[in-house]
Structure to design on (426 residues):
């Protein structure tokens, strides 16, 4: 990341003020991720599907194992020692997430199943606040998880869904944003980073403008958190959501950050144990934040695993990670011309290391299958972003998404494999 103003505007806790980083010791980092050591289809695994789900470091596996071996019981029961240990580990992880996002309080950190559930929770909760004439503003580059819940909210409430255009390069069209934002906009819900294009959006600027017209703001951080540390207070957003499994943590858990006052106003999403204060057949009252939104026994081991993943990331040099990731992306960009008929979809100025592409004469799913035969894992298809596929006039793309444990040799291997595929099959 070189452009300071873009970095600030996109709201990550920037690392420009830190001293220059020593290069990342990728070989050492790779030893922390046992899954990377294996062979797939007789070849050393080259895992370039991090955008779909990232791999887990040993410390995450150990933290979850230790939790089940030494600490497990149900949480918030206070009846015995194991219950106290489980509660301490679980709430400790919540504090780790709070610090990661720089939220003001752990009351603002709600555990969910992931990004999808977090957005659904907010969209459901806002039903009573919207009516005909109100507008919900999303963008053309959203994942279905940040489209359909708003579409359903619009249907329930009579509000209108508006869509910010995307430029051919894959940036948000800021003129389109300015034109569509109005006093009628009640909610702005946009992605911090596009899962297809890799674009890092200037979300702080968008949030500031949306707040100026009185709109609520939700940022989908699913693809941002593996690369940057968002500062929710600097961003000024009302809601920020992400999934643990893309952040090198376990599946089955994610986070909704919400401004305390707003979470107080939102009704519960699900009902049952944990989320109540007092139940009688005549009337039930809700627990305090964040428990009001956490009905039932939560994903305790998964919270512990996510906490361990964030601790692991905190131990790495963020500036070195960013530099290494950008080097991977630059190297991949530099090799595109070596493949006849290859074109990258998403050439924004400010990107995370995600490369969606097409190759003339090859269907994306065939590219995926042929790469897999060579041990290389990428994702192909519509990436849960069908409106964006329609915009580019493609059925899908092939997507290589890199993490800090990927190497420059792996980029070479990807392009050598693509060259072979292009030669043999086109
Ligand atoms: N938002 C964005 C920007 C995403 O990339 C994803 C998942 C989600 C929301 C949903 O996250 P979940 O954890 O609740 O499923 N994106 C992808 C992807 O790009 N490939 O597989 C999943």
């Amino acid at each position: 990341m070189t452009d300071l103003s873009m970095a600030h505007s996109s709201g990550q806790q920037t690392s420009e003020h830190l001293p220059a980083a020593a290069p990342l010791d990728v070989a050492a980092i790779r030893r922390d991720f046992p899954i990377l050591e294996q062979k797939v289809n007789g070849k050393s695994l080259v895992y370039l599907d991090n955008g779909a789900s990232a791999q887990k470091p040993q410390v995450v596996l150990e933290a979850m194992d230790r939790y089940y071996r030494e600490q497990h019981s149900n949480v918030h029961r206070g009846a015995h020692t194991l219950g106290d240990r489980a509660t301490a580990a679980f709430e400790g992880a919540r504090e780790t997430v709070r610090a990661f996002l720089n939220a003001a309080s752990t009351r603002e950190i709600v555990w969910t199943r992931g990004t999808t559930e977090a957005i659904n929770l907010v969209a459901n909760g806002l039903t009573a606040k919207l009516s005909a004439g109100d507008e919900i503003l999303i963008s053309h580059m959203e994942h279905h998880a940040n489209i359909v819940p708003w579409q359903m909210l619009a249907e329930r409430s009579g509000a209108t869904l508006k869509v910010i255009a995307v430029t051919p390069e894959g940036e948000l069209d800021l003129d389109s944003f300015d034109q569509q934002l109005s006093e009628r906009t009640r909610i702005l819900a946009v992605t911090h980073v596009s899962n297809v294009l890799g674009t890092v959006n200037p979300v702080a600027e968008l949030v500031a403008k949306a707040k100026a017209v009185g709109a609520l703001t939700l940022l989908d951080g699913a693809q941002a958190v593996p690369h940057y540390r968002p500062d929710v207070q600097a961003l000024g957003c009302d809601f920020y959501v992400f999934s643990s499994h893309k952040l090198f943590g376990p599946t089955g858990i994610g986070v909704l950050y919400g401004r305390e006052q707003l979470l107080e106003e939102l009704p519960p999403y699900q009902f049952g144990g944990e989320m109540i204060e007092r139940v009688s057949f005549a009337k039930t009252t809700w627990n305090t934040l964040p428990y009001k939104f956490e009905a039932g026994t939560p994903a305790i081991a998964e919270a512990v695993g996510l906490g361990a993943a964030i601790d692991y990331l905190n131990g790495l040099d963020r500036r070195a990670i960013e530099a290494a990731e950008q080097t991977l992306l630059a190297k991949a960009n530099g090799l595109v011309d070596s493949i006849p008929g290859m074109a990258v979809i998403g050439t924004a100025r400010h990107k995370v290391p995600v490369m969606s592409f097409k190759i003339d004469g090859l269907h994306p799913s065939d590219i995926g299958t042929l790469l897999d035969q060579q041990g290389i894992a990428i994702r192909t298809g519509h990436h849960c972003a069908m409106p964006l596929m329609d915009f580019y006039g493609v059925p899908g793309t092939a997507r290589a998404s890199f993490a800090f444990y990927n190497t420059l040799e792996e980029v070479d291997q990807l392009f050598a494999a693509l060259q072979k595929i292009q030669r043999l099959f086109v």
Summary: The domain at 60-313 is CATH 3.40.640.10 (Aspartate Aminotransferase; domain 2). Residues 51-52, 114-116, 143, 145-146, 191, 195, 220, 222-223, 243, 379, 383-384 surround 7TS (CB under 6 Å). The chain is about 40% helix and 15% strand.
